[in-house]
Write a structure and sequence with these properties.
With 308 residues, the chain is of the alpha+beta class. The chain folds into two domains: 145 residues; 150 residues, Heat Shock Protein 90 (2-Layer Sandwich), CATH 3.30.565. Helix content is 56%, strand content 12%. It contains six helices and seven strands, in the order H-H-H-E-H-E-E-H-E-E-H-E-E. The strands form two sheets. It has a five-stranded mixed beta sheet with strand order 2-4-5-7-6, with helices on one face. Helix 1 runs antiparallel to helix 2, helix 2 packs antiparallel against helix 3 and helix 4 packs parallel to helix 5. It is elongated and about 100 Å long. About 2% of the residues have low confidence.
Length: 308
């Protein structure tokens, strides 16, 4: 999922650092020899000294850059490891459940009522796999495509109606688990493709319900800002997100806690998709604690589509 990066400039930086170290060493040797021989050529001495100091600054700057790249590479490696763990778990669990259900149905006669239960469980497992594939495909498309100029418009209330039904069905919760409150100055048309707005809202609602189980109470509020932009606020009744960790949740592959100890399914791509798509639509997304707690509120502001 990580876009390929060119190794050209890191290699060039390494070559420059090696050359600077060699030149620095040679320069200091020359200065030492000149000092030992009692050279009276002050201009030569100060010239070599100045070049040496400049090379030392270059080396220090290069070391700092390499340190930053190393820290970034370690963080990326940890996120990718977390992603592999989560995807492996997301694939293994439903496949094992499907295998067990199919083996049970084929090896012995099962009453009709139990067959219905097995079919329901298998359908849930297939939905889970379908969600995983959707996340991976959405992430791939988001990373590869370029932002497109306007012209498209999406109706937020229509998208909410479709997404709410799908999320409620996917998690098997009550129909009133998600409440939508829209201001009276609608309709709320935003500048962007309907598919992108659907991905943003679907991921926010999916997370809100998932982390609020077993009794989710999610409220979606649609309104306008003073600047005329459309604001979509999704508030849940989950455990909340600690303030220091809130900037991290939008990173690719990042999930809070250890993947091996986590019971909530996911890949760490949902909020990354939200952040990326909202940025492409020239909007912004914020996260804050729900008042009164517990809970989390995600606010998305998108530019309104021009009125026709």
């Amino acid at each position: 999922m990580e876009p390929r990066r060119s190794f050209g400039w890191p290699i060039l930086l390494g070559v420059v650092l090696i050359a600077a170290l060699i030149a620095l060493t040679v320069g200091w040797v020359l200065v030492s020899i000149a000092a030992a021989l009692g050279s009276q050529n002050a201009a030569f001495y100060w010239a070599v000294l100045g070049v040496g100091v400049a090379l030392l600054v270059v080396v220090l700057a290069g070391v700092i850059v390499y340190l930053a790249l190393t820290v970034k590479a370690i963080a990326l490696s940890q996120r990718q490891s977390n992603f592999i763990d989560s995807v492996t778990h997301e694939l293994k669990s439903p496949l094992a459940s499907l295998k067990l259900s199919l083996q049970t149905l084929t090896r012995r006669a099962v009453p009709a009522e139990q067959q219905a239960d097995f079919h329901r469980i298998m359908l849930q497992d297939v939905e889970r796999l379908d969600t995983l594939i959707d996340h991976l495909l959405d992430a791939a498309k988001t990373l590869q495509r370029r932002p497109q100029a306007g012209g498209s418009a999406a109706d937020v209330e229509v998208v909410l109606g479709n997404v709410c039904s799908a999320v409620v069905h996917r998690h098997g919760v009550a129909d009133d688990a998600i409440t939508v409150e829209a201001a009276a100055d609608g309709p709320f048309m935003v500048a962007g493709q309907t598919a992108d707005v659907e991905i943003v809202i679907r991921n926010l609602l999916d997370n809100a319900v998932k982390y609020s189980l077993p009794d989710p109470r999610v409220t979606v509020t649609v309104s306008r800002t003073n600047a005329g932009r459309v604001r979509i606020a999704v508030a849940d009744n989950g455990p909340g997100i600690p303030i220091p960790l809130r900037p991290l949740i939008f990173r690719r592959f990042h999930r809070l806690g250890s993947e091996l100890e986590r019971s909530t399914p996911g890949t760490g791509l949902g909020l990354f998709l939200v952040k990326s798509l909202v940025r492409q639509m020239r909007g912004k997304v914020l996260v804050r604690g729900r008042q009164p707690p517990p809970g989390t509120v995600f606010e998305v502001e998108l530019p309104a589509a021009p009125r026709t």
